[in-house]
Amino acid sequence: MLLTHLRRNVVAYLALIVALTTGTAYAAGLANGSVTNQKLAKNAVTSPKIKKGSVKRSDLHKKAVTGAVVKDGSLTKSDLAPGTLPEADLFHVVNNGTMPASSPDSSGHLTAQMTMPRAGEIFVRLDAAFTRSCSSGVGRFGLYVDGFPIPGTGNQTPGAGDRYTVTPSALVELSKGLHTFALGLDCPDGDFTGGAFPLSHTWTFLLQGE
Fold first, then answer.
1. Distance CA 110, CA 202 (A)
2. Are 185 and 139 in contact, with CB atoms under 8 Å apart?
3. How far is residue 123's CA from residue 118's CA, in Å, rounded to a whole number?
């Protein structure tokens, strides 16, 4: 009975033995590093098959991670190399002023240039005595760097009958190179009608981290 069964199924048993032995031999015969990109089928390695935290910077192709694949708002200052951000993109307010007008009536007053020896923070302060009046409402002033308003440096201009020194200041993070600072003036509800400008002024720049 047993002999009859073996004779009738010998081919099937032989096929099973060959499949098992060749499959094992093939898997065991793979040398480390022998499976190359060319030997992998397209989409053979998918995200679920990759161990979390196992992909390092050196494993990524150059330009593999671009702005389009980075989640908005996920990067912070510590993730960026110095000088990566455009000029005047980061400000740290020191005084309690407001945001100057983005497009003031005049933004080229009392200009001063300074060269950053490296990317970093710089403390800037303007001491200026002047008066300005508007045909309607009150005038506003603020500090600007490379054409950008510096938040926290906006305030009301001294009127034509007043005379006092304004002292807007802030910490500004800038890239290496030449930068231009200026005082901007604005009459939101009218036009400038009078006043004396400037009576005196002094710029102060202090590079941080020295």
1. 9
2. yes
3. 14
Rg (CA), the chain: 35
Tell me which fold the domain 90-207 belongs to.
Jelly Rolls (2.60.120)
Cβ atoms of 119 and 174 within 8 Å: the answer is yes
Q: Which residue has the tokens 């996920």?
A: 74
170 CB contacts (<8 Å, ≥6 apart)?
91, 92, 93, 94, 95, 123, 124, 143, 150, 151, 152, 153
Q: Per-domain residue ranges for the chain?
A: 90-207
Tens digit of each residue's pLDDT (9 = 90 or more) over 21-35: 554 444 455 676 667
3-class DSSP state of 190: coil
Q: What is the residue whose two structure tokens read 């926290």? A: 152
Listed residue (123, 131, 140, 118) closest to 181, CA to CA:
123
- Predicted TM-score (pTM) of this structure: 0.55
